[in-house]
Structure formats: structure tokens, C-alpha cells
């Protein structure tokens, strides 16, 4: 059996090599290149592909994989919004993801960014760099006095809830699916609007779907408390960036931590050499603000998560090839 792993970064390679040593029955090929029309030919002769990228898996790529008889594709990440589902189905390609490589990694990062916003550390760091060591006017807020609204209570949302509770915050949540434990605690509100109206902090942990594209738009912001904090470690497309900029300008939003951005593909995880060369004026507008923390999709990026992404995806692909089954199969 042969598996080709695409987009393997230097930090993933040792884990892939170790997995390969532990699975001598599998021929493992790897490349640092992403899976696209220019690289798909490298999958010829393989039984499965293991991939991670934010770039789309297009119909053209999936049709080619299908024509090479590659029917198993395993993602090393959670999100499946960049797959052309019709093309995957048409080609009989089964897809697995890694739903839980480390929900805690993302939750911990989100909470870290929230504390940075509340304690104004970005502002103080910038002031200190200019020799200004005064306190005022940058007085902070305390999370234990606040209500955090968690949008979506999957694994990551639940890990975030545990942390917010540890800080003594009141936590409420909205989700179409109610987690039985959280239900017992009476944590759920009935609608996104109720969540918006009652939250001092909004922590977004939903996957991207056709329905929730730009769910945080002008209308949603208008229903929130004045001075709300927005945390988005989920998907850029959930937030209408122009509406967020308007809400920051008006003071409706007091601060935002964005680990994702709707136009991040080709920008995040790239070195442009200088701030001026970042080719996105809207993103630069956000980065320049002291009350906005932009990070390049790194909430997931821990040793444990990267190890699990490689191992769980390789295991799932091997299982699909040898048995046709995997507990990580995605319904597209
Ligand atoms: C995901 O797992 O879907 C992420 O957002 C993390 C990143 C590897 C893209």
C-alpha cells in the first residue's frame, strides 16, 4: 500500500518519519508541495493521499485523483470547507479529517488573546517600546466580571468554556445541537440574537458552512452590547471584515482577536519581508490597531497538535485503504 503526504512542513517531517518506521507495511512518499493541479500527478500509483492546506481542493484536482484510482483522502486538520463536495462524491473519494487533534490548543490560544485584549498588553508593549511607562489611560477589565458568549459548543467550544469558567466568568452558549452536560447546567440561550445581546465577549467556534457565511455582519453587530470583544479562532468567512472594521471604528466592538481572516489563503504562513509588503490593505488596517490582535492561524500550532494531525490522518488513511472504514470519515 502506498500513501503520499502533501504539504509536509519541516515541523511535521519527524512525526511522519516516525509513523513510517512504525508502519513498515506502508510505502510513504511525501512532498512539501500542496495538492493542486500542478502537483496532483505525484499521486499516480498511490492508494491514498494525506493532505493539509487552506487552499481549495478543486473539482479539477479531485477529478484527476479519481482518474488515477485514488479514492481515499485524509485531511490532517478539522475543517472540510475547502473541499468541492460534489466532485469528491462524483469520484467516489472518501474523506477523513482529524476532528480532535487538540481542541485545548485552540481554546488556550483564544483565551490567551482575550486576556491580552482585556489587560491591554498590546498597548503597553507598544508604549514601552517608545519609552512610555505610564499607566493611564489604559485601564484594564477583569474576565471574572464578564459574560462570555460561546457560539458553537463542539470540542473546541467546550474546551474554551472550561477555561472561561476557570477565570470565574459567567458563560452562556448558543448551538443548534445541545451538549447534554452543558444543557444540564442551563448554559444555552435560545438564539444567536440572545447570545449577542447578553455577551460582553463573543467567542466563535463554529465550522464554516453556506448558512453562516458572514454571520457577524452589520446587523449582528448592531444587536451586541456596546464595547463587546470578538474572538474568532474558527474561520475567517464567519466575520464580515468590513462590518467589523465599521464596528471597531464606532466603538461598538472594543477589541477583537482574529486568528483567521476571510482572505488569508496565500497570506498567512508567508514571509513578505516587511509590513508594507503585506498585500492586503484591509488586513493591515486591522493589524495597525492596538485593540485588534491578528495572528496567522496559529491557534492550532502546538507540538501535540501537529503530532496528532500527522498520526491520526496517516492512521485514518491506512485504515480506509486496508478496510474501507475509518471512524474519522466525513459526511460531505
Ligand atoms: C483546522 O484544523 O481546520 C484548522 O483550522 C487548523 C489549521 C491547520 C488550518
From TrEMBL:
It comes from the Bacteria. One of its GO terms (molecular function) is NAD binding. Residues 8-330 form the D-isomer specific 2-hydroxyacid dehydrogenase catalytic domain. InterPro entries: D-isomer_2_OHA_DH_cat_dom, D-isomer_DH_CS, D-isomer_DH_CS1, D-isomer_DH_NAD-bd, D-LDH-like, NAD(P)-bd_dom_sf. Keywords: NAD, Oxidoreductase. Residues 114-299 form the D-isomer specific 2-hydroxyacid dehydrogenase NAD-binding domain. SUPFAM superfamilies: Formate/glycerate dehydrogenase catalytic domain-like (SSF52283), NAD(P)-binding Rossmann-fold domains (SSF51735). Belongs to the D-isomer specific 2-hydroxyacid dehydrogenase family. This is D-lactate dehydrogenase. The lineage of its organism: Bacteria, Bacillati, Bacillota, Bacilli, Lactobacillales.
Amino acid at each position: 500500500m502506498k500513501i503520499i503526504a502533501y504539504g509536509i512542513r519541516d515541523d511535521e517531517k519527524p512525526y511522519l518519519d516516525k509513523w513510517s518506521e512504525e508502519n513498515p507495511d506502508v510505502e510513504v512518499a511525501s512532498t512539501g508541495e500542496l495538492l493542486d493541479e500542478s502537483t496532483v500527478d505525484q499521486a499516480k500509483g498511490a492508494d491514498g493521499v494525506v493532505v493539509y492546506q487552506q487552499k481549495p481542493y478543486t473539482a479539477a484536482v479531485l477529478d484527476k485523483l479519481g482518474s488515477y484510482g485514488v479514492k481515499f483522502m485524509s485531511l490532517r486538520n478539522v475543517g472540510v470547507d475547502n473541499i468541492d463536495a460534489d466532485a469528491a462524491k462524483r469520484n467516489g473519494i472518501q474523506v477523513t479529517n482529524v476532528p480532535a487533534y487538540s481542541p485545548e490548543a485552540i481554546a488556550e490560544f483564544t483565551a490567551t488573546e482575550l486576556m491580552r485584549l482585556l489587560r491591554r498588553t498590546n498597548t503597553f508593549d507598544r508604549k514601552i517600546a517608545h519609552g512610555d511607562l505610564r499607566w493611564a489611560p489604559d485601564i484594564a477589565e477583569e474576565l471574572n466580571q464578564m459574560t462570555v458568549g460561546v457560539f458553537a459548543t463542539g470540542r473546541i467550544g467546550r474546551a474554551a468554556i472550561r477555561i472561561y469558567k476557570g477565570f470565574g466568568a459567567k458563560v452562556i452558549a448558543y448551538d443548534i445541537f445541545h451538549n447534554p452536560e452543558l444543557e444540564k447546567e442551563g448554559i444555552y440561550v435560545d438564539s444567536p440574537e440572545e447570545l449577542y445581546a447578553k455577551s460582553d465577549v463573543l467567542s466563535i467556534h463554529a465550522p464554516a458552512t453556506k448558512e453562516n457565511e458572514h454571520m457577524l455582519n452589520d446587523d449582528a453587530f448592531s444587536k451586541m452590547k456596546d464595547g463587546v470583544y470578538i474572538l474568532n479562532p474558527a474561520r475567517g468567512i464567519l466575520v464580515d471584515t468590513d462590518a467589523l472594521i465599521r464596528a471597531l471604528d464606532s466603538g461598538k466592538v472594543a477589541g477583537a482577536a482574529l486568528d483567521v481572516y476571510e482572505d488569508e489563503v496565500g497570506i498567512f504562513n508567508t514571509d513578505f519581508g516587511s509590513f508594507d509588503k503585506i498585500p492586503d490593505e484591509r488586513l493591515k488596517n486591522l493589524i495597525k490597531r492596538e485593540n485588534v490582535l491578528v495572528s496567522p492561524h496559529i491557534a492550532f500550532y502546538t507540538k501535540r497538535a501537529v503530532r496528532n494531525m500527522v498520526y491520526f490522518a496517516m492512521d485514518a488513511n491506512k485504515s480506509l485503504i486496508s478496510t474501507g472504514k475509518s471512524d474519522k470519515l466525513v459526511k460531505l
